[in-house]
Amino acid sequence: MDARLEDFVGLLRHNGLRVSPAEVADAARATVLIGLEQRDPFRAALRATLVKRGPDAPVFDRLFDLYFLGVKDLVEGLSGSLLDALAAEQLSELDLEEAARLLAQMHLSPLTDALVKGRAAELARLLRQATLSLDFRGLQSPLQRGFYARRLLQAAGGTRAEQELQEFLLRLGQQGFDPALLEVVSRRVSHTLKALEEAARRVAEREQKARDPEQKGESGLLQRNLASLTPAEVQRMREVVRRLAERLKTRLTRKRKVRRRGVLSVRRTLRKNLETGGFPARLVFRSKRPERPEILVLCDVSDSVRNVSRLMLQFVYTLQELYSRVRSFVFVSEIGEVTHLFKKMDVSAAVDLATAGRVINVAANSNYGHALKMFHTTWLGSVTRRSTVIVIGDGRTNYNPANAWVLGEVKRKARRVIWLCPEDPGSWGFGDSEMPLYSRHCTRVEVVKSVDDLGRVAAELMP
Fold first, then answer.
1. pLDDT exceeds 80 at position 296
2. Are strands 416-421 and 444-447 parallel, antiparallel or unpaired?
3. Which of 55, 101, 440, 450 is buried most, with the most CB atoms less than 10 Å from its CB?
4. CA-CA distance, 420 to 215, in Å (whole number)?
5. pTM of the predicted protein model
6. Sign (positive or negative) of CA dihedral 346, 348, 349, 354
């Protein structure tokens, strides 16, 4: 069980849960005390020891169901007893009694006995025990399901069950069973074995899905290239980004509270401790005024980078409580402010409107130079020494004037200018890319191609 628990913890970590070695040890002790037979207490014990944050509970539950449970429903097709099935085939009462007598004489293995008697609960228990005894960490591809299903059957006693059922058929023949009736029994035995193989295959399928990056939801999407997402994946990504931003906000708020305590004030500490003679000592710190930056986001919403812009806007506005002010602008050829949309509606709806052409013409050809010049004319006065200006775009100008001098003016007034580019540096400067020119006027340029990249950059925006 220890190996299975470690494997399960590895899956939790791969899906974004933070689990410490001490928590794994607590989980191991809890499983020893509770055991594996009772589903709900076992789940509750693992959840209590391994899950610290509310948003992680649904991820835990999904992986728990894929990894530990889901066996009982897979053996429902084996719930009828062999003798009942033969009775339905209109075997005579005498033939049924003879078949029952032969089965009683055979010392059947637990798996064969459960198959013959149609005990679905016992079959589920045996398959679950076999699952827990195997190491599925190498099961990464759907092509491996058959191999692991055979290993699972062998661990559950499938080889012996097949031998015993074949021996049962042989004994029926030796007892002079009518060949036609023997064929009926053979079909039922074959059906039972195939149903068992199918149950094992479906268990292996669930084990593989728990490890498949495409099935892992959040963890699989975090590393996906944003430019290649399908519309359905974009919708899934919005929830992933929301959860990631909420976790990031919790972590940054906690760090800020620690930093806010400030430095030790010797004078105030001495004064405070005069009352008690210095025992116990009470330290007094100078309170630190929290520094909350203001953010200005300029998002290219042309087709090539629209996904990055959408998700970065969602990130920033989910974290807006951490900033003194957030202003957002979208551009293709013209630039327009969309801050008011986020004041009127929820973040998701505002992002949809901001990137869908409500403020500017999103069908126009990209013209960075024109958009930057418009920003300089209308909004440069909004940039202050507390401003962090974030530009999101690929820097491809359609061979129009770059007007990079505008960025130089912005950098001169702002605290910092950060450019998020979805293209690797190897493509900069080729064709209509003006990224080498724009990058000279930026404090930092970051390549952002996935949500993981977005989360890293968003965390670094905090002082």
1. yes
2. parallel
3. 450
4. 29
5. 0.52
6. positive
